[in-house]
Amino acid sequence: MKNIFLVAYLDIKESLRSKWFYVYSVVFGGLMALFFITGVSDSVVMGFTGLSRMLLIFIQVTIIILPIFILITTVKSISGDRESNVLEYMLSFPVALKDYYWGKMLGRFLTVFMPVFLALLLGVVFGLFKGGELPWRMVFLYSTLLFSLSFVFLGLAFFLSTLVKSTDIALGSSFVVWIAMLAFIDIALMGLMLQNRMNDGLIIVLAMLNPIEVFRIGAISLFDPELTVIGPVAYYLLDTLGATLLMVYAIIYPIIMGAILAYLGYIAFRKKDLL
Amino acid sequence: MLVKVQKVSKVFMGSRVLDNVDLTVERGDRIAMMGPNGAGKTTLVRAILGFYHIDSGVISVNGYDPVKQRVDVLKNISFIPQLPPPVKLSLEELLLYVERSSGVSRAKIFEESNRMDLDLKKHISKPFFKLSGGMKQKLLIAIALSKKSDLLIFDEPTANLDPKGREKFYELLGEIDVSCSTLFITHRLDEIEGLVNRKIYMDLGKVVEDEKV
């Protein structure tokens, strides 16, 4: 058990030195700074202005880039170490597989979640500095949603990383999964509805299973409680579940999904050849 | 008996890499394992280290199963891979990993490094993969020798060492406790001839020759 924290600590140290971490931090921190420089928070679009407007844009960007950033940087963690024989050496020491796997996941979670979370805090501090009011509830719920989104994609990345042996295949498959999920937040869902070939219930289920769509609905319901800006599926879900249950689902479902995927990855790590 | 391999087979994508292998390693055995590329030497060592799930047969190390009881097995084994892996940890972090996971004292690693003519202090904050090939190999050897083990496994350990480094390495091996066993995978028997008391020859996934010398 003590080795979980050792592996996590070393993974964090390694990540903090790597280029991907700098790019990742600069992208999210830089985006927030860019929003202020370009005066996004002063503009008014569809009734949103100030800190809400800025957080809304941050969410739109997060929906697109956070999942792929997490997938690309993490999917190589086990498969890359396996390919380069780092795993062979590191696991020749008496470290339990559960300590190694969960330690890696813990370390990686902190390195992918913290920059986004800090960028959010940076935005809030800037917003307050400019004289806005602090939307405590919104900041808290949005942080929780970010936590859930990071967790589900980290779980998915670890699952893919242990399942496939080559880094190229791991990267390729994570890209396909990301594109498919992204397509199903709008274009594909609308296409299916327009074709009218599928049962509406199935389309709703598809939307509810997609963690990107769930995050999007949960996050935007914070700004637009009627969900009028994002279409009929979201509106139907809000109408059926109610605002509170929808938010609980948006937070809990990705965490459960991420935990299941991470656990399946762990089973594959334990049951398959390590090299 | 330290290592017992009984009727072990392993198949990779239809190819039988280990074919009903039987092998025992007793305390004090100094083994040179030889054979052409693809003979199954590295696969056998990896199976002993618990990296592979074998298709049939039994492997036990000190009575423990390498897959199910890997921590108990690896406590008593030191391993040096064929090529130093591109570990991105700094030397400081790598030593911390070794220290905490295996209970090896840092002072002992520094001592063994000095004996290998490797100045660890000078490079301590550098990432491991940025060291030269020879320096990496020397550090792996120093770590392996610092760990109190019943069995040392070396997969072509001197491939990256200059002649002086090799000489130093063989000198240190001569000082290893007599009860400790060593297993060298090598293509250069002439270099370690004086250090071994048993030769094993593998081919096509089988042990084809096993003689005491």
TrEMBL record, chain A:
Which Pfam families does this UniProt record tie to the protein? ABC2_membrane_2 (PF12679)
Q: Which UniProt keywords apply?
A: Membrane, Transmembrane, Transmembrane helix
Tell me a Gene Ontology molecular-function term this record carries.
ABC-type transporter activity
Q: Which residues cross the membrane?
A: 21-41, 53-74, 109-129, 141-163, 175-194, 243-269
Please give the GO cellular component terms listed in this UniProt entry.
Answer: plasma membrane
> Could you name the domain of life of the organism this protein comes from?
Bacteria
Known PANTHER family for this protein? ABC TRANSPORTER PERMEASE
Q: What is this protein called?
A: ABC transporter permease subunit
Organism whose genome encodes this protein: Sulfurovum indicum
Q: What is the lineage of its organism?
A: Bacteria, Pseudomonadati, Campylobacterota, Epsilonproteobacteria, Campylobacterales
